[in-house]
Amino acid sequence: MRTSMNSGSVGSPNTSLSLSPEVFGSIGLQTLGVANPIITLNGTVGVTGEQGDTFVVELVRGTVYDPFFVIYRAEGTVGQTGGAEFHSFTAQDLAAPPALENVYTSFISGVSTVVRTGPEMFYGIAATN
Length: 129
Fold this sequence. Notes:
Blueprint: E1 2-7, E2 15-16, E3 22-29, E4 38-48, E5 54-61, E6 70-77, E7 85-93, E8 102-110, E9 115-127
Antiparallel strand pairs: 1-9, 2-9, 3-8, 4-7, 4-9, 5-6, 5-8
């Protein structure tokens, strides 16, 4: 199990989103010698914006954003104007290869009126059945 906490409280990093995906967490999980590893990934992002603003959370196997390696994609919508909202997600990678370390990176993108207000965390666990 590994965890990556970019921000542990509301108010940070306090940056606007862009249409280009930006990293908010990265972890490495060891799966060498594990038959049919099951990777479970979880996280939370805090955002503010205008009601109806949209954002996207994508999880990638690897360190660089590449649409080909996206294993999870979720679109979110800001439900209220003002005040931090917390959006959580859970995903699984059922096709993880056995490796010394599989790296998973979480990205967020969206309209520029959405602000990353925190907290931001990303964690995962590798298991077998």
